[in-house]
Amino acid sequence: MFAAFLTDLHEILRTNNDGLEKEKQLMNYSSNLMNRVIQSWINWQEPQLIQSYQVKGYTVGKAVERSVQFLFGVLTYTRKSVERNGHIIYPIDNLLGLERYDRYSLRTKYALAELSMVTSYRKASELIEVVGNVQASKDTVMKVVHEYETKYKEHEAYLEEYGTEGKCKVDYLYIEGDGVFVGGKDGTNKELAHFIVHEGIETNGQRKMAKNLKQFVGLGHQKTLNHVENYLYRTYDLKNTVIVTNSDGGKGYSQKTFKSLLPVVKGHEHFLDRYHISLKLEQCVFVPELIPVFQNAINNYSTRDLQCALDTLESHVETKEQETHVKKLRAYLRRNWKIIKPYHLRELSGEKQGIGIMESLHRILTFRMKRNSKYWGKGLEAMAWLLTTKRNGTLKEIFLEKWKEAFALDDRLVAELGKCPNHFFEDERQKVDNIKNYAINYHKPSKQTKERLDWYKGNEN
């Protein structure tokens, strides 16, 4: 076989074709070679695998050919099935990580998902054909993205159902929230609720970065808040933690919203985002020379200086519109004065850091989802989840569905016994978008409900 390989290689390399054509021929040859090698491996290993199932009472089925697209090319191979009580297994498919009707390998799907995060579905299908030996349409890329949406929902349902109380203790925890508007195909703007949680800023060489940063995003504001709350519950013991929150104060992102997330904590400091304060000043202060005066008054947290700046601005009023600007600015500053208080004047350790980073993190979403005036349909939320889970470092875990391994043995044993399989995930797939409200029996709560209530109250286990 090796001698034949050298002969074939010699014929390709000694032709008069240009370098591009030669490399294309080498790619095709390597794909054909991989087909022959894997089929030889199957012929060698399959009898042992089949025998291990026959011992358990499985019967052997006929050999069936199958073709699957891998990154190295199309793999066509023949394998046998085993069956018991109506449950059919293809041992070779299991070893290759393939579901029964998959046309693309897991790694190929993962590559398509990665490409979809940086360019359009059509461009992603073109790119993977250029750089690899893969044929995939834009509809295939879209299908992979939609499949990830299902995996993400099942993953969140699993964590909500089986997550246990966290034990991590930190002195400070930072939470921010804001909305991102993305164009929809129906002509309306869709708001993605975007929240971040991290443990402060750490230095890595010359670079500063948020420690253990996690992002949460979704079309449903309350649903996304629930994901944040579940993450806090599964990760932290917050009884001795000071929570620092920051937002623009818009609907759904007020101090009250963040407070609703928290159990018993050591303290809670909420900030009105300075970037949005600056925007407000630019909108309402029609005398540009006075903007630094307002900024200094806010930095010094001086009501006297602020009143002086407002009076000076009011003295320049010449139109009804300018008068309205002064009234709005005065009301805005008076309403938010407590949460405008600067970081250095609060009882918080260290320099101001860890808050006001939300706007820069929006770019993770906006670079892909708003560039070139894109409009989104069903895949909007799925793409947002792809982008944020990649940043969170959980993309691979969710894509591979590693969290399902806890149920794999149960399902296999049930199937072998001929009983009904575990339909937990199928049920959750239907219910996850239709969250119902359940009455809690506070006199006789379930074990899970009691743990959650104790967490909110700050009770020790």
TrEMBL record:
InterPro entries: UPF0236. Pfam families: UPF0236. Belongs to the UPF0236 family. This is ISLre2 family transposase. The lineage of its organism: Bacteria, Bacillati, Bacillota, Bacilli, Lactobacillales.
